[in-house]
Amino acid sequence: MSVHRAEWVGKAKRWVVKIGSALLTRDGTGLDRAALADWAGQIVRLRQQGIEIVLVSSGAMAEGMCRMGWTERPRALFEKQAAAAIGQMSLVQAYEENFQLHGLHAAQVLLTHDDLADRRRYLNARSTLRHLIKLGTIPVVNENDTVAAEEIRLGDNDTLGALVANLVEADLLVILTDQQGLYDKDPRQHDDAELISAGWANDPRYLAFAGGAGTHIGSGGMRTKVLAAQRANRSGCATLIASGQATSVLERIHAGATLGTLLMPDNAPLAARKQWIASQLQSAGQVWLDAGAAQAIRETGRSLLPVGVTRVEGEFDRGEVVSCLDSEGQLLAKGLVNYSSAQAERIKRHPSQDIEKILGYVDAPELIHRDNLVVL
Ligand code: GLU
Which pLDDT belongs to residue 213? Predict the structure, then answer.
């Protein structure tokens, strides 16, 4: 694995660096300006060596609370959103001041789940981010917490970091946290927990190792980091989870030092359109497949035909993203449907040549064409 590490990190030219709230705000006691200046300096030096960097920075809510002197995390959504609006100012101000010292600029990008779910907005965000990189700025991304309603929030910036890595086709997602990396057991509870130095992002053991949620300051734990690595994997991006407190952490990663946990991609990157489908966090509905259809999709990458669908749930229109479940209810794939839920309900279990007789017209013989279907 050590050979792989040097190979992966060495050839990574575009990085997404995510810094968590607990790190940025000294466990919620206020923005750690010295640490922030140090990371900013490292980012500038990497940039000078030709590494392109997009920063995903948490800490808006935690810093907003500090600015207002609130000691407890507010419960009401509008209070959290107000805290994020206040704290986001300090964050970008601090980044801009530090980058300016070296003649660079920060560029604030606030995204919501809907921006990434809507194909047109997604493509807009993608081209703007790419242009900001080309201009030599350091985009500083966060979730637009002030407008994101609770039920459609991305929720944690590990997920956001991975989606941004997909968006800009990054080679490496670096998640800086207050832990050394991923352990085979929770190191807070087990003295003999061992750090995993490198592995494959999709190794099924890692989610079990990661356990539940993290601290009270940020929103993610190790689990969201492993899931982020799996998402990043879809665009062929490696993920490195490392301690943000380690000296010169980013520059040492660049130099090939063995630190943290490197989770490497094991798949060829999906085509951009399929990545977008796979990155959808919510589906408009779901269809249940019989064993034959599930096998055809899983093993031979076929299209989904109406005849293989046993149940249709939710309300969706043609062109929306729908989840495909196997007969056990396990998520198997996601895809863009050719028929609405009402139409799918009528044509399910029927061979495609009957579609015209049933609906009075035929749009496509498939419910989901294989070009619009991503096996997960
Ligand atoms: N967007 C949140 C903030 O800046 C952080 C989410 C997270 O902790 O992952 O406060």
Answer: 54
pLDDT tens figures, 89-119: 999 999 999 999 999 999 999 999 888 888 8
CATH topology agreement for domains 2-274 and 283-375: no
Question: What's the gap in Å between 51 CA and the centre of ligand 1?
Answer: 25
Residue 25 alpha carbon to ligand 1 centre in Å: 11
CA distance 361 to 355: 7
Q: Cβ neighbours of residue 106 under 8 Å, at least 6 residues apart?
A: 55, 92, 95, 96, 99, 137, 138, 139, 140
- Provide the whole-model pTM: 0.85
The pLDDT value recorded for residue 1 is 55
Distance CA 265, CA 232 (A): 8
CATH topology of domain 2-274: Carbamate kinase (3.40.1160)
Q: Is the CB of 59 under 6 A from ligand 1?
A: yes
Break the chain into its structural domains and give their ranges: 2-274, 283-375
Alpha helices in 25-76 (DSSP H): 33-48, 60-68
Contact 320, 360 (CB under 8 A): no
Mean pLDDT of all residues belonging to the chain: 90
Mutate to test the pocket of ligand 1, among 143, 176, 225 (most ligand atoms within 8 A of CB): 143
> Pocket of ligand 1, candidates 55, 86, 145: which has the most ligand atoms within 8 Å of its Cβ, to mutate?
145
Distances in whole angstroms, Cα of residue 370 to Cα of each of 110, 126, 235, 298, 351: 33, 24, 18, 11, 17
Average pLDDT in the 320-325 region? 94
On whether the CB atoms of residues 106 and 96 are closer than 8 A, the answer is yes
Residues in the chain: 376
* 283-375 placed in CATH 2.30.130.10: yes
4: which residues sit within 8 A by CB, 6+ positions away?
Answer: 198, 262, 264
Residue closest by Cα to atom 2 of ligand 1: 58
Q: Are 218 and 244 in contact (CB under 8 A)?
A: no
| Per-residue pLDDT band at 272 (split at 50, 70, 90) | confident
Residue 215 confidence (pLDDT) above 50: no
